[in-house]
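Our preliminary data section would be incomplete without showing what the modeling component actually yields. Below, a chain of 416 amino acids is followed by its predicted structure, encoded as tokens that our downstream tools consume directly.
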Amino acid sequence: MIRIIVAFALVAGCKETNPLFCEGHPDDPRCTTDGSIVACTSNADCFAPTPVCDAPGTMMCVECTSDQTDACTGTSPVCGDDLACRGCAAHVECPASDACLPDGACANEADVAYVDPTGGGTACTLASPCSEVSAALATTRAVLKLTGITNEQVTLDNRNVTILADPGAKLTDTSNGILLKIDGTSQVSIYDLEISGASGLGIPGISLQLGNASDVLLTRVKVDANQGGGISSSGGTLTVTQSTLSGNQGGGISVSAGATFTITNNFVFRNGDQDTGTFGGINLGVASAGLSRLEFNTIVDNRASSGATRAGGVICDIVGFSAANNLVARNSVGGNSSAANAQTLGVCSYPTSTIQSDVAGLSFASPDTNPFDYHVMVGSSVIEQATTVSNIVIDVDGDSRPQGAASDIGADEFAP
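Predicted structure:
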């Protein structure tokens, strides 16, 4: 092996090494007592947890290189640009299965049922995907992977399943009916899927039926343009995070009949109807205040019809419930955003939240022109104002909170 002495100046022709490596890794077998560092020439010179020699690159022992990734396994299957193993962040980083799991691991292809509306297979494999979700469910595999636009009404009854989606994947339907009905004791997690186009008055895109005990998690899901509403939960446990609910005529999210909920880091905008809607953005009925939460949401430009029992923004009738750090603005009843019940209605409190009848000072990216964008820009009045303590440490885009002295109110954390 070659010994390179750490110095302030480099000898011409020598490779540069990290002068702080041995200082931070005094027990590393490549470091000597005099502070010098031993460079590698092959993997035989390296030891775990850095078993790969980056030769002829840095001549340092690292976790992996682009052509030596065998050490990257489990929940860290990808070799990053820093020559360290990390979790997958996209399906394309898992070439064997084309399925990146939420924990950063690449799924085994045998555990995934693949759905592509252009496919004609019956095995639901990566090479021969099924064209329908029902066929994929029949395989009883734990993971479903959706590609493209699937026209189908799906029922999950006493099923435990994780549903993944490629960019642009959508579940829709051209006939009246609930797009996704979840019932029984199902344990369902959905990532990155768009659920839109349910038609029929009173028929939502996603429904958790009355009396069910299901546990449903929606992450980075888009629920839009459903005539009877976005999500309706009459039982079980509903978690919606980092998602977008928009253009749902029957309202964004409705929770009732004792269901528990966690609704955090979401954009909820332009839902409801000013002529017929009973609520616009979110309707929270009877639930346990201690088990539910509504935090860090941006709820803007939702509509309900005129009436003292209606609200464009949030209806919340849970005694003792506190909904912190939410941004509720320019919602309306009967077209009036200045009405007392236009933004919020009910007995819930909203500590360190911004609630106002207009969007003045909020500095949204594009609140009035389609495509609408309610990310906050520099100078927004909500920046660093979410001072109510919370254990939420990311925003709707996965950016870390806080970026400054305190988190920002609403779904988006402004990143300078």
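Residues 186-376 form one domain. The longest strand covers residues 160-165. Preliminary results of this kind motivate Aim 1 of the renewal.
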